[in-house]
Amino acid sequence: MGKPVIAGNWKMHMTCAQARDWLATFLPLIADTPDDRELVVAPPFTAISTTAEITSGSRLEISSQNVHWEAEGAFTGEIAPSMLEEHGVRYAIVGHSEPRKYFSESDEQINHRARSAQAHGLIPIVCVGESDEQRSRGEAERVIRRQVEQGLEGLDPNRLVVAYEPIWAIGTGKTCESSEANRICGLIRSWVGAPDLIIQYGGSVKPGNIDELMGMSDIDGVLVGGASLDAESFARIANYQVA
Ligand code: PGA
């Protein structure tokens, strides 16, 4: 079983100067963090190089917020795996609900991105999750199962992270009940058929709910948006303690 993965996604936040300040606060706060967990931050592309320089030699790993399926080419606005590898990037977030919603990313495209990540030695963090309407119509499990089956097709589960992120809990302050998040993570594990798959929960993770979430049997980490922008909050999340 791999280590739990605690990842902060800065989304479209953080200039290089802000990333430097954040790291200056954050790195000392993880000096004594137990080695039983992996710590990851996903800067915007422009701050990856600065973040990589400052974190080299530290335990903080870097994720990108996207990766393309082609090695290079005429794909304006996209990022190639080799461009990430050059900076020692280890993870790539794909299938987040924001590109699914704003850029109509399909499960097929997400699968191409995730396969490309694995082919180039990156670990994809593939996000899945239902909307509020889908949940109230009783369709949550069917939607997530489709995202899992199509998005993860052909992937090696040993070099993969899946993030269960109910869309209604992202950036809303409404956390999914930890027991319900755990139940869905357990279902995902059974659908994939890989007992050691790392499954994160994401959606309004905060210092106040991290310990409870990490105490759940099927939750092997978290993907954190808003609370990762504040170095002290994210350090508290990284330093979670399970009773
Ligand atoms: P949030 O975002 O923590 O701000 O809810 C989570 C995410 O989008 O991954």
Summarize the structure.
By secondary structure, the protein is of the alpha/beta class. The protein is 39% helix and 16% strand. The site of 2-phosphoglycolic acid (PGA) has 13 residues, from strand 8.
Distance between the termini: 20 Å
Number of helices: 10
Strand order of the largest sheet: 1-2-3-4-5-6-7-8
Q: Strand content of the residues, in percent?
A: 15-25%
| Low-pLDDT ranges | none
Helical content (DSSP H or I, runs of 4+): 25-40%
Count the strands? Answer: 8
Rg over alpha carbons = 17 Å
Write out the distinct hetero groups bound to the structure: 2-phosphoglycolic acid
Characterize the overall form: globular
CATH C-level name? Alpha Beta
What is the CATH architecture assignment? Alpha-Beta Barrel
CATH topology: TIM Barrel
Topology:
Layout: E1 5-9, H1 16-29, E2 38-42, H2 45-55, E3 60-64, H3 81-85, E4 91-94, H4 97-102, H5 107-119, E5 123-128, H6 132-136, H7 140-151, E6 161-164, H8 178-192, E7 198-202, H9 210-214, E8 221-224, H10 231-238
Parallel strand pairs: 1-2, 1-8, 2-3, 3-4, 4-5, 5-6, 6-7, 7-8
Helix pairs in contact: 1-2, 1-10, 5-7, 7-8
2-phosphoglycolic acid binds near residues 170 and 227.
